[in-house]
Give the backbone structure.
Amino acid sequence: MSEKKIPYKIYLEEEEMPRRWYNVRADMKNKPAPLLNPGTLKPMTFEELRSVFCDELVRQELNDTDAYIDIPQEILDFYKMYRPAPLVRAYCLEKKLDTPAKIYYKFEGNNTSGSHKLNSAIAQAYYAKQQGLKGVTTETGAGQWGTALSMACSYFDLDCHVYMVKVSYEQKPFRREVMRTYGAQVTPSPSDTTEVGRKILSEFPGTGGSLGCAISEAVEAAGSREGYRYVLGSVLSQVLLHQSIIGEETKAALKKYNIKPDMIIGCAGGGSNLGGLISPFVGEKLRGEADYRIIAVEPASCPSLTRGKYVYDFCDTGKVCPLAKMYTLGSGFMPAPNHAGGLRYHGMSSVVSQLYDDGLIEATSVEQTAVFKAAEEFARVEGILPAPESSHAIKVAIDEAVKCRETGEEKTIVFGLTGTGYFDMVAYGKFHDGEMTDYVPSEEDLQKGFAGLPDVTV
Ligand SMILES: *Cc1c(COP(=O)(O)O)cnc(C)c1O
């Protein structure tokens, strides 16, 4: 098919839509390391995990063998409200950059929660409902995950209790109100409603909280209430599985126009959008069917892949969760307060970590003022106002396209545009006023985080 015929937006027809999630673990020769019980240091069993998570989600978490898992009809029906997500040919950006590169982005921001997180939220709420549960608890940082989960829970008529990092609760009241509109109960964390919250408050009075703290509170709250389970918006293998809808749709849209990407770029916080986008392509690499350059982009202020250690670590501050082997900066690591761009989790999905350790994907880090500059450049030509998180991928896509201008290579670049940035205008404001600064942790800063790593040899 000739180049000219490629439309601005590639959509899939209903009969072309993926009906299965793809589980890349099935094709990985080196499987991601199992979650460990922090007491016994033995792999977490189904029985242990089901006290925290829904049964079906535990099965998915432990499933390293089935390459495809059917998406239940109720979830496919919900996906119809906002999917397929368009694969956009960035003609305007290409023109602006005067590059021979062909740039495509998969836009996941076309739903009220404004990000890809709804893809997994609806699946997790569905399985909770199937199990006959009353509700779920979770944590949220800036609020994207909490918003997505509130939408999903209201659809299935489940209670949703969100522990929101206190600084965000106070500084980002709009997201909080979106969650309450969908019926969620939102508690600033740390709070005095849990044991672990009270402990953190007594040790650090006046703390603004962190994701790691809010996770501990949400896990405790789920465990202490009949009919509740805990759900998580990233990092876990089940979440990457649900997010594979992004990659499956992208692959189908590219195939429709016979487009072969040279590189695939995604931002990496906990690794769920990146893992979901790249899974089908990594699968082809693993099976020797195709080759791609795959690049994970993280903030220089929270560089888990590029500067972290690949070891077992705690997933939360209160150390109530299982241990995960991942690239990590240590559960005590906190990005500097001037960091505004999201992607601030100390660790990385164990699937993404293993793929990176095996050299199947690359990683790079970028500084936040450069990220906001790329965001603005993108918004001005492509129209969409991107989330700061997504803009990490934009930054590297632009850099690669500029390299093509210099070398004359017509590379095909695909990147994930995970969401919109309407709730991040305070950060955009700082950027416009020239008040945004960059911070790259020193070796000494990193050592402090590493000092808190558990001593696990398995
Ligand atoms: C949460 C979020 C991310 C990062 O999370 P991952 O699990 O790494 O995908 C990226 N972009 C947006 C818009 C988000 O809301």
